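Quick start: what a row looks like.
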Amino acid sequence: MGKTTTVIHLAHYFAQRGDRVLVVYLDTQGHVALSYDEQPGDALRDVLLQRRSIEQAKVEARPNPWIIPNSQSSEEVTPYLMNMRQREYALANVLETIEGQYDWIFLDTPPSANILHDLALIASHYVIVPTLMDYFSIGGLSETLRTIQALGNLRHVTPPKLVGVLPTRHDIRTVETRRQMEELADAIGEKHILPPIPEDTKVREASTFGKTLWEYAPKTPALIGRPTRDKVKNSLGNLGGSLHLSEILAISLKE
């Protein structure tokens, strides 16, 4: 489970509670829409170019979660934004128009740094950084965290608060995973590491059917975690999974 699947499962959890949830997809691959069995579209481009409002552009993917789909068309926005004054606030300004209308707004960022990635970070209050448990992914974390911190150098910008780093596709059986978890703890401190998302083939299966794990495999480890003797547990007595992350956000950010 990576960046996009983390977002859609968080969104689904809160939507099931009856919260109003909006997912804004800033990656050009269109995976959020496909994960909900919807088609990618030009909504993000139109919103940023002020051709449509968020309310006009959103798609109701399920009861309560709405999405702003994206596609390759958002690349057309880059030249426009580069000539815009205070372009770094373009997304933040759009989101201000719907302030108070949603309980949760999740921004799914592009996989690599670009202007849309920067717009998402500037518009965010909190950030979760998913990472795979391999050498190169762990090594790239420092750059990501430095980018977030550097936002404080921009005028009138408060960097988003780090909720934590989220280990994904976590397989405790492998030496590589155990070693990288130790490296991660040494680099950022254990208190910044969120309960992991276990490696789970059901994640890919669910995506191919346009479903979330809540719909496709509600008892699978990537969703509910694995049995643990740890003191830190989710409501089912397990460690990790999307359920654990969702409950942490529900307690620490809202309730």
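That is the whole record. Residues 1-124 form a domain with the Rossmann fold fold (CATH 3.40.50.300). The chain is about 45% helix and 15% strand.
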